[in-house]
Amino acid sequence: MGNAARAAGVEGDTLVRFDRAACLPADDRKLILELAPDVCRSLGLDPRHYPIVLVVGTVGLWTSDIWLAIQELKQIAADRKKQAKPGEAS
């Protein structure tokens, strides 16, 4: 993600945000692991199945974060390309 952001010309805080979007923070992973059995029980689910729920939920959220970041990078790259060619019609 960071390489794609750099290729799009992203710098500074925006680059850091894209780097962070590509990974699940360690504190979040720890919290999820600690709370997952209790969450399953609260939902009336068998806690022995929580690894499946945990993996699907985590990967789903991570995937959506990456997809959103990629869409934004594409827009940034397109905007910069337009700025680089001001004489051409859209």
Summarize the structure.
This protein is mainly alpha-helical and 90 residues long. It contains four helices and no strands.
Task: Give a short account of the largest sheet.
Answer: none
Query: Share of helix among residues?
Result: over 70%
> Which whole number gives the mean pLDDT?
83
Question: Which geometry do the CA atoms define?
Answer: elongated
Structure annotation, total helices: 4
Question: Overview of this structure, please?
Answer:
The structure is a single chain. The protein is mostly helical and 90 residues long. The protein has one domain. It is built from four helices and no strands. The mean pLDDT is 83.
List keywords for this structure.
90 residues, mainly alpha, 76% helix, elongated
Topology:
Elements: H1 2-7, H2 12-21, H3 26-42, H4 50-84
